[in-house]
Amino acid sequence: MSDSDNEYIEDHSSGDDHNLNVGGSGRAQRQKGSGRNATSKPGTRARWERALRDTNNEPNVVADDSRLAENISRRAEAQKRARIRKDTKPFQRGIIRHMVLVLDVSEMMLEKDMRPNRYRVMLRYLEEYILEFFEQNPISQITVLMMYDGRCIQLSELSGNPNDHINAIQKLRDGDGKDELPKEPKGSPSLQNALEMSRAMLYHTPKHGTREVLIILGALLTNDPGDIHKTIASCVKDKLRVSIIGIFARMKICTEIVSRTNGGDESGYGVATDDVDLRDLLMASTSPPAMRATEQEDAAANLLVMGFPSRTEEEHPSLCACHGELTRGGYICPRCKTKVCSLPQTCPSCQLTLILSTHLARSYHHLFPLRNWLEVSWDRVREMRTTQCKGCLKKFPGIPTEDDGADKMDGSSESSRYECPSCHHHFCVDCDVFCHQTLYNCPGCQSGPPAQVPASNGETTGDPMALDGAS
Amino acid sequence: MDGVDATVRGSVRTSSAAPPSLLTIILDTNPLSWSHLSSSLPLSAVLKTLLIFVNAHLAINHANQVAVLASHVDNVAWLYPTPDDGDASKQSSQTNGHTEVADEHRVVSNKYRPFLTIEKNISKNLRNLLTSDIPSAEALKSPPLLAGALSIALAYANLQLLKADPMTSDSASTGTGAVGAADLDAHTSALRTARSGHQFVSRILIVSVSQADLSSQYIGLMNSVFAAQRLNIPLDVLRIGERTAFLQQASDATSGVYLTYDPPNSTANGTNGAATASFSSATAGLLQTLMQGYFSDVAARKLLVMPGSAEVDFRAACFCHGKIVDLGGVCSVCLSIFCLPLEFTSCPTCQSPLRVPKSVTTKPVAFARRKKKKRKIGDGGRDSAAGTPVPN
C-alpha cells in the first residue's frame, strides 16, 4: 500500500523536508549525495546503518576541472530539488485531525547525548512543532500528555488553540512562577498507560476526523501495569493511528504498536539519531496523513455546518462571549449573533463551529497538490527555445552548440530548466522549489494558455516573429 | 536569550539603513472594465498616476526596485522589466532599443534615467498588449488572471529576495558541512529576520477594476495569499469600483492595505468641460490615495497607522453556486463549502457520500410554550365578587 505520509524513511534517504522551514537544511547537507542513492531500495536495515553505507558507497566521481563550477551548481540544484515532495498523488487526507501528543518525561530524557539534554531539546522543538502543526492543520485539535514517573499526565486539553499547548509546555519547562516548579524528568515511562489515556482522550472525537497519537519516546523500556498487547488491540479497534519517534535506538514493542495501528505499515516509527533528525521527524508529521482505503469506508463524509463570521468594529467596547472580556470588535456568529474575539472556535452560545474561510483554504494544497515538474533535455529546449524562466525572468543558460556530453546528475536538469507537465512552461530551479514548497501554484498554468512549440520547429536560427508568438 | 546569539549582530548592523524595497504592481487591464470607466477615470490617466507613484518609490531609495505586471484577459504579461524573446529577437530589439533610448535620451535629457526606462518600457509593453489581439466578447467578461499574476509576482519577489540575501538562502538550502541544532536555529532566525524586513522588503500592489468574481481562481488565489504571508509580503489592494470579498481577505491575511477608490461622478455625461474638470480631480484624488495609502514599505509600516477599516468581510463562496455565504456546510473530506439547504447527497468535488447531520435537516424543536393557566372563572368571579377588602 503506498501511503505518502508514512514514507519518512525514503524521505530521509533523499533529505526530504517539505516543510518550508529552512532549518531542515542540516539534514540535506549531512546526507549529501544520498539523493543519488534515493532510487536504491530502502532496506529493512536501521537508518544509521544505511547512512553509513551511503557515505561509503559514494561514487568517486573524477570531475573534469573545466566543469567544476557547473558540476557544483548541478549538485546544488539536485539538492534543492531533493527536498520537494516526491509524491503528488492527490490522496484523500485526514484534514480534520485529532492528535494526542505524548511526551516522554522519564529519567532517560536527561541523557546528554543531545545538548543540553534530550528533554530540553524536545521541548524546544515542540513549540515550533505546535505552531507549524496549526499552520498546516488549522481546523485540527491537539492534546498534550506526558509520561512521568510511570504515570501519564495530561498537560493540556484537546483544543485547537496553539497557545494553550505552548503555555502548557512552557509551564512544564519553567514552572508557573509561583508554587509550581519546573518539572524535571523522573521515573520510567509507560506506553500502556499512555495509550490507554490517549484512547480515552480520543474516544468522543467524531468519525470524520483522524485519531492520531504521536509519542516521543527517549527511553528504551516501558514499565507497564498490565498486558500492553491488549491495549494495542483495543487501540486498533478504536482506529487510533500511533506513530512513535524514538531516540537513538529502536524497540520491538514500538514497531509492533506502530505496525498494528497503521495497518501493517511500520514507517510511522522513526528513530532520531540526533537533534536535527528529531526536528525533521516532528515536522514530517505536520502534513496531514493519507487515509487508508479501509478507513475511508468507515469514515463516511460528514457535512459539517460551519459559520464564516465577518469581523466587525464597534464604537463602544462590549463583552466577548468566549472570555468575558471587553473588546472593541470581534467576530459575530452568523447564527446567533454572539460576539467572539478569536477564530477558530466553537460559538459559546449555539455551538456552531466558527472559522475563517482562509483556514479551510490553507489545507487545499494538501488536497490538490502541484504536480512535479520535469527535467528538460537540451533537445526539448531546442524545440521550445525558452530563454527565460516563466516565473522570475531569470535567464537560462543558452543552448550549447554541440552536445558536450556533460555528465547528468540525478535530480537536476542538464539545461537548468524545469517544465510543468500541464502548461509546458519552463522554470528555473529556484522557482521550482518555491512553487512546490511555498506557493503550491504553477505560475504558468494560472496565467493563460499553455506554451506552444514555436512555429519554426527545430531551426536554430529562426526568425524573431515566430518566437514572439511563442512567448 | 536570543540576545547572546551571534546572529543578532547582523540584523543590528543593517537596520540602520533603510532596506531596499521591491514594489510589484499588478494592473488589471481588462479592456471592458476600463472602457466603462473611460469617462471618469481613463486608463491613460491611471497609468500616468501610477508612473508618478513608481517614480516616487524609486526616488526614495536608490536601491529600490519596481516590477509591473498586467493581468490581462487571457494572459499575464510583464510590463516591466521587459522579458526578452529568443536570442535572435533579443539582439535585434536590443540594438533597436539602444538607438531608441539614445534618441529619446537626447530629447528628454532632463529626465532621470531610471524613470525614463520604466516609462518607456511600460508604455511600449502596454501598447503591445492592448493592440496585439482583440479578445473575444466572452473572454472579456472572464475574471482577470489574478492568481497567475500573483504567482508570477511572488516568484519574482522570491528571486529578488534570494538575490538580495544569498548567504542566508544558500546556507538554508545548500550549505556544506555538518550543522548542529544551534546553528540550525541561527539560520532559521537569520532567515526570519531577513524575511521580517531587515534585509530586503517587498510588497505587491494590486490595482483591480474588473467586476467579474474570482471564485473560479479561489484555490490559486488563496495559495498565493498564503505564500505571500510566508514571505512576509503584504498584498495591497486598490479597488476601483465596488468591494470584492476575496481581495479584501487577501490583504487582511497579509496585513496589507485595502482601499476602494470611487472615481468622482463616475456617471459623468455632461459637457466636455465638465468631463475634463472631473478628470483632473479624479487623477489627483487617485494620486493622493496611492501616496498616502500605499507608499510606505513594510519597514515603515510598523511605525505608521495604516488606513483601511478593521471590518473585513470573511464570508466564503460556496462551491455549488458561487454564492457568498456566511453559514455553510463543509464536506469533511475535501473541505468544499456548500450553501444550505444542500441539494445533493454526495459531494460534487470528491464524490464521497455526504451524511447530513440531523441538526441541519430537522428544525430545532422549540419548547412547547406553556399555556397560561387560566384561572377558573368561578374562582376569579368569586374573588372579584368578594370585593376589595376594606379596612375595618
UniProtKB/TrEMBL annotation, chain A:
GO MF assignments: zinc ion binding
Disordered, as annotated region: 1-60
Sequence ranges assigned to domain VWFA in this UniProt record: 98-247
Pfam families: C1_4, Ssl1
Entry keyword annotation includes Zinc: yes
Domain of life: Eukaryota
Location relative to the cell: Nucleus
Record-linked InterPro entries: C1-like_sf, Ssl1-like, TFIIH_C1-like_dom, TFIIH_SSL1/p44, VWF_A, vWFA_dom_sf, Znf_RING/FYVE/PHD
Keywords associated with the record: DNA damage, DNA repair, Metal-binding, Nucleus, Transcription, Transcription regulation, Zinc, Zinc-finger
Zinc finger boundaries on the chain: C4-type: 333-350
SUPFAM superfamilies named among the record's database cross-references: Cysteine-rich domain (SSF57889), vWA-like (SSF53300)
One Gene Ontology cellular component: transcription factor TFIIH core complex
Comp. bias intervals (Basic and acidic residues): 9-19, 46-56
Alphabetical GO biological process terms: DNA-templated transcription; nucleotide-excision repair; regulation of transcription by RNA polymerase II
Compositionally biased residues, Polar residues: 31-42
Family according to the record: Belongs to the GTF2H2 family.
Function of the protein: Component of the general transcription and DNA repair factor IIH (TFIIH) core complex, which is involved in general and transcription-coupled nucleotide excision repair (NER) of damaged DNA and, when complexed to TFIIK, in RNA transcription by RNA polymerase II.
Protein name per its UniProtKB record: General transcription and DNA repair factor IIH
Organism: Microthyrium microscopicum
From TrEMBL, chain B:
UniProt keywords, alphabetically: DNA damage, DNA repair, Metal-binding, Nucleus, Transcription, Transcription regulation, Zinc, Zinc-finger
Biased composition (Polar residues): 89-98
Cellular compartments annotated: Nucleus
Signal peptide: none
GO biological process, one term: regulation of DNA-templated transcription
Primary residence: nucleus
Keyword Metal-binding: yes
GO molecular function term, any single one: zinc ion binding
GO cellular component, one term: transcription factor TFIIH core complex
Source organism superkingdom: Eukaryota
The UniProt record lists the keyword Zinc-finger: yes
InterPro entries: TFIIH_Tfb4/GTF2H3 (IPR004600), vWFA_dom_sf (IPR036465)
Annotated spans, Disordered: 84-103, 367-392
Assembly and oligomerization: Component of the 7-subunit TFIIH core complex composed of XPB/SSL2, XPD/RAD3, SSL1, TFB1, TFB2, TFB4 and TFB5, which is active in NER. The core complex associates with the 3-subunit CTD-kinase module TFIIK composed of CCL1, KIN28 and TFB3 to form the 10-subunit holoenzyme (holo-TFIIH) active in transcription.
Family according to the record: Belongs to the TFB4 family.
Role played: Component of the general transcription and DNA repair factor IIH (TFIIH) core complex, which is involved in general and transcription-coupled nucleotide excision repair (NER) of damaged DNA and, when complexed to TFIIK, in RNA transcription by RNA polymerase II. In NER, TFIIH acts by opening DNA around the lesion to allow the excision of the damaged oligonucleotide and its replacement by a new DNA fragment. In transcription, TFIIH has an essential role in transcription initiation.
This protein's name: General transcription and DNA repair factor IIH subunit TFB4
Native source species: Microthyrium microscopicum
Lineage: Eukaryota, Fungi, Dikarya, Ascomycota, Pezizomycotina
